[in-house]
User: Fold these one by one.
Assistant:
Number 1:
Amino acid sequence: VIAIKAGKGRAIHGSPVRNTIMPAWVIDKYGSNDVLRFNENVLFPIIHYPNEVIIQVHAASVNPIDVNMRNGYGSASLNMTRDPLHVKTAGSEFPLILGRDVSGIVMECGLAVQYFKPGDQVWAAVPPWKQGTFAEFVVASANEVSLKPKSLSHTEAASLPYVTLTAWAALVNSCGLKKETCPGKRVLIFGASGGVGTAATQLLKAWGAHVTVVCSGEAQTLMNDLGADDIIDYTTGRLQDQLKTRDLFDVVLDNVGGTSEELALQYLKPWSGASYCTLVTPFLYNTDRLGIADGMMRSGITLGSKVVKHLCKGIHYRWGFFTPSGPALDEIGEIVDAGKMRPVVEKVFPFSDVPQAFEKIEAGHARGKTVIEVI
Ligand code: NDP
């Protein structure tokens, strides 16, 4: 018999006492920072599928996508994923909990979960169509979850999953890089001093690539510490003049977009399998603006035409997207525990200060990650 305890308090794994409500930061509509609302009475998450786990969130982190989602960005596509048959009424995603990263403790497992048990210390990045991690508990699929690296605290661990999996998706899935193929490869990273850039730089260095980073001069010490081989300060002098003095690259990871796309494509080795991958794509913007069908068609035409145009010049052109993956996090955890990758935590906020953490991300100029300590 499970005793149901209504009201505040924390459910402890293995305990027969369960909460029915929990505290969380929610939004009830899209908008600027004042839509963020602390609610102590959010319904406790429920396991819907046998492969899901409930995680007690110890720490989370804020990513630019949280600020964008708060503004309504991506809502057309994300709502279609949440409700593919369109049976729910408009606004059924609210109250919406933002937050993608979690480091915490498994509290409950679905019947098909074999790899985890209550009490395990885990980390994960939860995809944006699911309820997020700015809450005391979150539900994730077991295949999105991994055992937390032993060498990291929850606060440190929460800084890595979303950005590192995004870097992984771009570098491994889109550009075909891996441990075995990296040595000798020259990689150029635009926007290297933020969350994705600091993760990508360290992954590539752990795999033996030669890494050139583009960042502001003020981030040079950080990028040096992370092992960057060559640092280009985009705030002094013309970027193209600085790039011209370097050898051509095998891979470009673009975390900035805009003019950096046209520029970067000129500095790749043609006809050698070189790839350009940008994380700044119009995919969600197009579906928000044009609807799902027209938006996807527009994105398909844009991507297809760029792929063909650059293939004719001997360059692979790619769009990269965050991809949740427990197995990739397992490998990333091994790299971390081997001392080849470290969290870059710029600032830590208490759970009460989530809106201030959003303001920090919105102000830009990140140097690594902003973390929320939930417990
Ligand atoms: P951050 O805000 O953490 O980092 C961005 C970094 O870029 C900052 O350090 C900033 O510092 C630097 N920067 C800004 N302008 C330039 C420039 N012109 N040249 C070089 N560096 C610059 O963002 P993330 O790392 O988390 O994400 C990077 C981008 O990737 C974002 O646009 C994000 O939305 C996108 N993204 C896309 C995903 C996808 O699935 N497609 C997933 C994750 C992220 P400073 O301004 O001081 O130079």
Number 2:
Amino acid sequence: HQDLTQYAGPFISHKLKVAVMTSGGDSQGMNAGVRSVVRVALSRGLEPYLIYEGYKGLLCGGEMIKKVEWDDVSGFLTSGGTFIKTARCQEFREIEGRRKAVLNLVRLGITSLIIIGGDGSLTGADMLRAEWKEHINTLKETGSITEAQAIYNKNLMIVGMVGSIDNDLASTDMTIGASSALARICESVDALQSTATSHSRAFVVEVMGRHCGWLALNAAICTGADYLFIPEDPPTTNEWQKKMCSSLENSRSVGKNTSLILVAEGAIDSNLNPIRCEDVKGVIEKHLGYDTRVTILGHVQRGGKPTFYDRYLATLQGAEAVEAVIQATPESPSLVIGILENKITTQPLQDAIKLTTQVADEIQRKNFSMALKLRATTFINQLKAYKETANYFPQGCKRLSGEKKLNIGIVHVGKPAGGINLATQGIVRMCINRGHTPLVVYNSFAGLIRGEIEVATWMMVDTWAVHGGSMLGMNSIPIGKDVGAISYQLQRHNIQSLIVIGGSEAYTGLNELYKKRDEYPALCIPMILIPASIANTVPGTDYCLGTDTAANVIVNACDDIKQSASAHRKRVFLIEVQGERCGFLATMGALAGGATYVYVPEDTIDLEKIKNDTKRLRDIYAAEKGDSKGRIVISDQNASNVYNLDVLNSLYTGESQEDFDVQTVKLGSLQQGGTPSSMDRVHAAILSVSALGFIEESSWNSTCGSENGVNKLPEYSQQRYRQMVYTTSSSSAAVIGIVGSEIVISSFEYLKNSSNLANQNRKDEWWYFAKNLVEVLSIEATVKEKP
Ligand code: ATP
């Protein structure tokens, strides 16, 4: 106790003090989380503190716990790792160690603690909270703290944010760092594929994930891995060797000359024996004789810049954590901030930890189906998507009987977006495995009109996962008066259902075909749209394929442009991004790229606003004196009909009064291209599987037994259409989307009143609220004393 008394200090503050720390293994996005907590706390009039090196710093106190100002977290958004460092701390596991932590917090008058870390760190925090009163009493009795301090600090509020690359906390769909780690894995494995092809090699790659196969599973989807080992879905002890070899042989039998096997760090067989990369390599070499190499990706996965998604997630969760601290009462339990169905959630920390432990327990009990059930629904969808599309089944355990086989047309329409090719690959592969005939259409509806149609093969789409753009070619040429020609081609090629991948042009086109069913019987087939548009303008979905890739392009560009702007000191870059008439992409880019302002079509831009914005910038630059930073402002290309980029440039330049200079950048088509992001690839795979499921169900439920529709046809075509798919049901023409974390199919009929594509006004959309945070995080507000 004597040791502890040296930390006892005077009661120093009446303000709500909140400390933030990072703990456990680092993950990309932790810095963004710290920045968000600090800046939102400052803007809410709280007094934020940083604790360095996790629990170690909390125990040491002194210089390890520092009051923090606005500029101290400058540059945090864009960097991986954690600037405030992290450490494992054995001493914190002991009660005496935790008492030291309590003393340091009381000494500084800190009553709330926000921890960004894994389940271990959060368990430790909850323990600290549970013992808090006991520690306070002991410290008071031993004279380490005063009566006043004991009263002021009688409660401690704990809020956790899950920072973990493994995505292993149950009760949240994503953890901070998982998306970036997945991106690193994909970059590395994509790079391995080219050398594997040159040497016709097999590569066995180990990825992180001690108890959770999320990283390995999603990486397998993204990179088209031939085989996968994860702890939640272990193969049978004595059978996996044979199954794996036959699966790899099947892939080679259709022309592949490489094999890729992903192994999660914690992979096991059904008897809980670990499966290591070396075991896998041994089996391949012995039974198949392939030249096989092992690559352990290791800490590369933790490194590098955070992706758009991790910045976005950490930023929103940081803001929510501060709100939770403000709202807390002495009765509030410790909380954890998560994300479920695309909504930031606040849940009791103990529930989340209990659920996570339960998954590990079920695996230990070999109750793997339960372990899977306890993971988020998205995990199960991802596993299904992988299993349906990864392997080639020549005789087809999944083969359908003759009358169930379909001719399925696949068309890309509109502008390129990341993930379109992977979605096509998934559909083609599933079609082949199930016995359908995949008919790919080149060059959008225009190509369909001209009959540019071909049967796709397994090898044709083999490397499509990593390609941006559209391998089939796509354009926005409207159908116009050519519905008849389309109908003719569909009939000529006996296309019995249609999958279109694209944005608002695809939506409009498919809707037109649906509406013309009365006139053209060949259009009475199931049709589904997989939304792909960087502008995110398709109704019936929260996300379109391509938005994540485009947002990553924007944040990477913002990082580089900001660097250039900062080198010039007082420079403001006006960056124009694409987005049709929807401010989604601009908002996401601004939030994750650290823009000062964002201009979107949903808001009104006028002279007064621009005058205010430039005046604030002048004030900021004046306050910064010589040590100025560069800044960026993001504008949607359609933010205003009048105040376009050129006009904004002139007004900003005029209003800057030479306190700063102005440059412009148009990101343009850059946002549509590039390698698709890992998140877009995963979404593409999931949607492709569900889209085909919809097509099958709708087709099989159509002609068979639905004599009504057929009988309405002219007599000459009745016999023909009895053999074919024929449906007039409104539910058979639909959009498949991701709403929250659910896959939702909405018919065109249902969507017809919910959207006005020509004039998007999405102020009620889920993403719009995030816009308010842009300015909160980029401009220091006057800190107001709380009453
Ligand atoms: P990762 O997912 O990267 O492993 P983690 O937060 O789970 O992150 P741990 O090493 O388990 O990492 O925990 C980090 C620190 O949290 C430990 O060094 C220890 O100080 C504290 N901690 C972990 N578990 C407990 C516990 N049961 N009781 C008290 N403190 C704990």
